[in-house]
Automatic annotation (TrEMBL):
This is RDD domain-containing protein. Its main location: membrane. GO terms for cellular component: plasma membrane. The chain crosses the membrane at residues 82-102, 114-135. Keywords: Cell membrane, Membrane, Transmembrane, Transmembrane helix. It comes from the Bacteria. It is a multi-pass membrane protein. It holds the Pfam family RDD. Residues 75-203 form the RDD domain. Coiled coil: none annotated. It is found in: Cell membrane. The keyword Signal does not apply. Residues 1-65 are annotated as: Disordered.
């Protein structure tokens, strides 16, 4: 004897449904709470509005005044910049005077070959140190002198290092600072961003980082 569907014997469940009183297997629709449509967050989950926040690139300084941010570090004052420049020059000029002195002594003693070798070594050293300093300044924002004085050269737009190529261009642009009686070298004394003319042309700034 059967009820309902004549083709469904008594006590037999429809195909595809679990027996009476049993839950469907885990992961199948109908298990536990009702499943939300695809793309709709489940009830009770926190909803996020607007665009997702992008992580700050490493080394970039957030714009000043941004909520929750400390803003940009202070600009390096003129004294620190001059001290870093003099220290960088001393690293090259110091060995220069030492080698020139040795070369002069050997030449006066009748051994010009030694003086020529020392002069060649001096040239190699000067070129090598110049490239190393530019590479460090472009890659990390700091030459040896800048690192010792706690200042860093970065792009004004995003606070990142300027790269080797732009570091070389900025070095060439320093000739603008020497025009008009070296006024460009003194410009950071009263400029709001403590920039030289080369900094303004290359869109760079120097920050105090310690």
């Amino acid at each position: 004897m059967s009820f309902g569907d004549p083709n469904n014997p008594y006590g037999q469940q429809p195909q595809g449904q679990p027996p009476y009183g049993q839950q469907p297997p885990y992961g199948q629709p109908g298990y536990g709470y009702p499943q939300a449509p695809q793309g709709v967050p489940p009830q009770g989950a926190p909803q996020q509005f607007g665009y997702p926040q992008q992580p700050q690139p490493y080394g970039a300084y957030p714009p000043p005044g941004m909520p929750g941010m400390g803003g940009m570090p202070p600009y390096a004052h003129w004294g620190r910049r001059v001290g870093a420049y003099l220290l960088d020059m001393l690293i090259i000029v110091g060995p220069l005077y030492a080698i020139v002195g040795i070369s002069g002594a050997t030449s006066s003693s009748g051994e010009p070959t030694i003086g020529a070798v020392l002069g060649l070594l001096l040239l190699v050293y000067t070129l090598t140190m110049g490239i190393v300093q530019l590479y460090k300044e472009g890659k990390t924002g700091q030459t040896i002198g800048k690192k010792a004085l706690g200042i860093s050269l970065v792009r004004e737009a995003d606070g990142r290092p300027i790269g080797f190529g732009m570091a070389f261009v900025r070095k060439l642009a320093h000739f603008l600072d020497s025009l008009a009686c070296y006024l460009g070298w003194l410009w950071p004394l009263w400029d709001d961003k403590k920039q030289t003319f080369a900094d303004k042309v290359c869109n760079t700034v120097v920050f105090k980082i310690k």
